[in-house]
């Protein structure tokens, strides 16, 4: 196999939820396309890499020209609720279902001894200050119902647990053990969010 094609396949295969076969299909489709799709994709990736960065407050990816993301700029979302999620895909899932109208905080992963992810790797350090500055009264955990998700949840609670008057809740029924938000339909997610329970 051509070394350049093989290198490209390896790059795609490293992406989450893709493997070598999917990488091969994507690369072949791009290289055999005559409409300029490969060039458009390359240009879009280069532009995004140069101009997109995490919001300094919540961690959501945003345009570098803006001081903070659309969620942190939206004063209507300052309702005292802060939803803690693993990554941006969880924000997209919750926004699509329209079950939450507060603000988000992206951790950027989950604690994992196997993967070597420690508290220093996560977006946690600014949480206590953010809770005070934004008058947060409820922390809603929307993390995967897995060992890593629960471990992360307990750690975050230990970091911010001394904030007076702060309530903790997590998503209720409808989230299966070991489940990710990505795989839940809107109805199930709505029930889980509306029926969240205190911790």
Mean pLDDT: 87
Rg estimate, integer Å:
19 Å
Q: What is the CATH domain class of the largest domain?
A: Alpha Beta
How do the strands of the widest beta sheet line up side by side? 4-3-5-6-7
CATH level 3 topology of the largest domain = Dna Topoisomerase Vi A Subunit, Chain: A, domain 2
Poorly predicted spans: none
- Helix proportion of residues, in percent? 40-55%
User: β content, as a range?
Assistant: 5-15%
How far apart are the first and last residues' alpha carbons, in Å? 55 Å
What summary fits the major beta sheet?
5 strands, mixed
Structural class call reads: alpha/beta
Oligomer: single chain
Number of helices: 8
Large-scale geometry: elongated
Number of strands: 7
The domain tally reads 2
Describe the protein's topology.
Blueprint: H1 3-13, H2 20-32, H3 37-51, E1 52-54, E2 61-63, H4 70-73, E3 81-85, H5 88-97, E4 103-106, H6 127-133, E5 138-141, H7 147-160, E6 167-170, H8 186-194, E7 197-198
Parallel strand pairs: 3-4, 3-5, 5-6
Antiparallel strand pairs: 1-2, 6-7
Helix pairs in contact: 1-2, 5-8
Describe, in plain words, how this protein is organized in 3D.
With 199 residues, this protein is of the alpha/beta class. The chain folds into two domains: 3-50, RecR Domain 1 (Helicase, Ruva Protein, domain 3), CATH 1.10.8.420; 76-198, 3-Layer(aba) Sandwich (Dna Topoisomerase Vi A Subunit, Chain: A, domain 2), CATH 3.40.1360.10. 42% of the residues lie in helices and 13% in strands. The protein is built from eight helices and seven strands; from the N terminus they run H-H-H-E-E-H-E-H-E-H-E-H-E-H-E. The protein has helices at 3-13, 20-32, 37-51, 70-73, 88-97, 127-133, 147-160, 186-194, and strands at 52-54, 61-63, 81-85, 103-106, 138-141, 167-170, 197-198. Helix 5 links the parallel strand 3 and strand 4. Helix 1 packs across helix 2 (20-32) and helix 5 crosses helix 8. It is elongated.
């Amino acid at each position: 196999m051509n070394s350049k094609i093989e290198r490209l396949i390896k790059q795609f295969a490293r992406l989450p939820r893709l493997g070598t076969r999917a990488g091969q299909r994507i690369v072949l489709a791009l290289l055999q396309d005559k409409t300029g799709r490969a060039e458009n994709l390359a240009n879009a990736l280069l532009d995004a890499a140069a101009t997109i960065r995490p919001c300094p407050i919540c961690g959501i990816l945003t345009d570098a020209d803006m001081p903070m993301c659309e969620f942190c700029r939206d004063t209507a979302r300052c309702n005292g609720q802060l939803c803690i999620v693993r990554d941006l895909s969880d924000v997209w899932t919750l926004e699509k279902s329209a079950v939450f109208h507060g603000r988000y905080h992206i951790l950027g992963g989950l604690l994992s001894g196997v993967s070597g992810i420690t508290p220093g790797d996560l977006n946690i350090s600014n949480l206590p200050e953010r809770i005070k500055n934004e008058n947060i009264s409820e922390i809603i955990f929307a993390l995967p119902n897995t060992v890593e998700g629960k471990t992360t949840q307990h750690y975050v609670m230990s970091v911010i647990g001394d904030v007076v008057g702060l309530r903790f809740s997590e998503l209720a029924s409808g989230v299966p053990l070991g489940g990710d938000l990505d795989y839940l339909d809107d109805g199930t997610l709505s029930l889980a969010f509306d029926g969240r329970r205190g911790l």
